[in-house]
Amino acid sequence: xxxxxxxxSDHMLLxxxxxxxxxxxxxxxxxxxxxxxxxxxxxxxxxxxxxVAKTLKNEQYLDPHKVNRRxxxxxxxxxxxxxxxxxxxxxxxxxxxxxxxxxxPLNALTIKDVVYGEIEDSVFKVDDIDDLLAIQLVEFxxxxxxxxxxxxxxxxxxxxxxxxxxxxxxxxNMLNEMVALVKQTGDIRDNELLPSEVVFLHxxxxxxxxxxxxxxxDEQQITVICDSSAKGFRKSRxxxxxxxxxDDQKQVYRFLEESGRLDPPRGSWIERSGLLDLRMYMMAxxxxxxxxxxxxxxxxxxxxxxxxIADNKRSLEEExxxxxxxxxxxxxxxxxxxxxxxxxxxxRFVLCRANPEHKDMELVNRLISDYLPFDFMTRYLFNKPNxxxxxDEWPERYRKFVADAISSYYxxxxxxxxxxxxx
Length: 423
Description:
The chain has helices at residues 18-30, 50-56, 91-101, 103-112, 129-133, 148-164, 172-185, 249-258, 267-273, 275-291, 302-311, 313-319, 321-333, 361-370, 376-382, 384-391, 396-411, 417-422, and strands spanning 13-15, 41-43, 70-73, 115-120, 137-143, 199-201, 205-207, 213-217, 222-226, 241-245, 262-263, 353-354. The protein is an alpha+beta fold.
């Protein structure tokens, strides 16, 4: 039986106050779902809860069609969390932008009620690649059980009419209705309850459809990277879209390099970041996992690494990754350039990271992590949903090693680790 993932709780908010649980259940009912009888549960940025999903026996309860994602906001504190479960890589960015642009009304609304709704776009179901390409803008549709945003909008219209129509003050019915609304909304001049920015761009992203698809949006061209068996591959908008099979690492690398999205191996960042050394340790632990050898006590245990590498020299030469990392590290320490044309196409990504100056840095690191199953640090930082799924499949002793490594190397106050490795 798998032990619980100790890393998930670091990105979740515990909900145990009775009034917040009651509000969450009202939001579930607003989606047509049954309320849950839990005394506590945790939520992510979007309000998704593993405990609620288990109780409802529905992991997709906030993402039923893998498009038009639902959200539940109990508190502005959720803005500091990450997304645990999503069909789109930019869901977290969209949510954080929505929070940032509408912080004041969200603060006011969540004092009184729960905010729930959908990140709505023009597509209601994804059947082929063209459906994903059609998504350009998203709009946040928000509701509360008490209908506060709608009532606020109605009250604003009445106030405008009262100020602009000379005879409006004679309309007793309207004045009585305004009084009734004010009792529910409060003074909306000081207590803004209506989010003003709800439409956002939806451009470069990864989606879970068709086994995972990357869409990169450049000024003159869109590039799609996914399995060539995906419906619409090389058929959806061929005049506008370039297609690359995700298994064709040579072409994927070429696209990322030519578009300036990659940081190829150079001494200027390799020695400073320590990323290749870290990948060597992670690869050694990954291979030790397969052979049931002892794992290191900590991620950077050089004594363990040297001993294990010496004991497994022949098999490591056949596998090739660790010798390559050793050779490249030695070359760049002598300020030698690495000619990537001489590196086998299946080995190139292990020597690279995303260009930290490019706006697509996070998405590119996510794509790189798809080719490096042993690099749990990159997956954890840039592809948490994939990391969590993979974590559940590992042997328990390797799961413990990974959890301890990430906790000591990244979580325990070492907030600059991410910048050091990838920026």
